[in-house]
Specification:
Length: 290
């Protein structure tokens, strides 16, 4: 009976030790949060239950189109890690910002002896990236220094910071994507918009960003400097355009604030021009990747 009961348990992830537990509340109280209050433990429990439900609801299905976007991105591993974590999965053993070449261990495969020194070093650097899931194809310099991944650069620049997705402007957009457009990747789109809006105005989410074209250019410049591919930047633009289409077409914005509605329509055109200028660079990136 005990084994049958245990097999029917819903394992939940401990956010501290990053391991699934058959009884998370007991584990937290005895191990990872034994010095925390019952209220704090209960809060973690509720959050992990919610994450588990979201994973079961939409986290198990990947569209072929979305996987293609990740594969053709210049930072495949960064994009892949972001996508997995967004679906409440956990990636462990993430690499540190610098990885000394002396500590790397690359298995010798058949035919490796036929390679020259340069090709061997190139293969070695590629194998290190794969094993570390770092998301960056690094070039080895003579000093054997490794650049930071775009993920680390994004974190340092604060570009992952975002407004609460429960804000009415964002929550309504999420419902529109999920229920009306049946968009399985809706949460990623809402997060894209939320990050952009936080960059423009960290205080409060607002449609006033349509009047901030200089900050908009600065945002995409920051994404480029962080190493994000043009395709990823285009995805941000698409999310913003869909967000504004939702507010200009399906809400009462035109009746409530005609001036802001008009600015939003012009901003969509501005985003379209940015998107067109990036399209050629996207094609070049795909060719280089291939």
């Amino acid at each position: 009976m005990a084994s049958k009961f245990a097999s029917s348990r819903h394992f939940l992830l401990c956010p501290v030790c990053k391991k699934t537990q058959p009884s998370l509340s007991v584990h937290l109280a005895r191990v990872c949060m034994k010095r925390s209050s019952k209220e704090a433990i209960q809060e973690v429990m509720e959050k992990e239950k919610k994450n588990s439900l979201e994973l079961l609801q939409w986290g198990r299905v990947f569209s072929y189109r979305h996987l293609r976007e990740i594969v053709y991105d210049t930072n495949i591993f960064d994009r892949l890690v972001q996508e997995l974590e967004r679906r409440h999965m956990v990636v462990t053993d993430m690499p540190s910002p610098t990885v000394p070449a002396q500590t790397s261990s690359v298995p010798v495969v058949a035919g490796a002896a036929a390679q020259g020194p340069e090709s061997s070093a190139s293969q070695q650097s590629e194998d290190i990236v794969v094993s570390d899931s770092s998301g960056e194809t690094f070039q080895v310099t003579r000093e054997v220094q490794w650049p930071q991944t775009s993920r680390q650069m994004m974190q340092e620049k604060g570009l992952y910071r975002k407004h609460s997705l429960d804000h009415p402007l964002l929550k309504g957009f999420a419902t529109y994507l999920e229920k009306d457009l049946l968009n399985e990747n809706f949460k990623q789109e809402v997060e894209n918009v939320s990050r952009f809006m936080f960059f423009v105005n960290p205080g409060e989410p607002s449609l006033e960003f349509v009047r901030e074209r200089e900050k908009t250019k600065l945002f995409f410049r920051e994404l480029s400097e962080a190493g994000l591919s043009r395709q990823t930047q285009v995805n941000y633009m698409k999310s913003l355009k869909r967000f504004l289409k939702y507010h200009t077409v399906t809400t009462d914005l035109r009746r409530d604030n005609i001036a802001l509605w008009d600015e939003a329509k012009h901003f969509v055109e501005y985003l379209s021009s940015l998107q067109q200028s990036s399209a050629k660079l996207v094609s070049k990136e795909i060719i280089q990747r291939r």
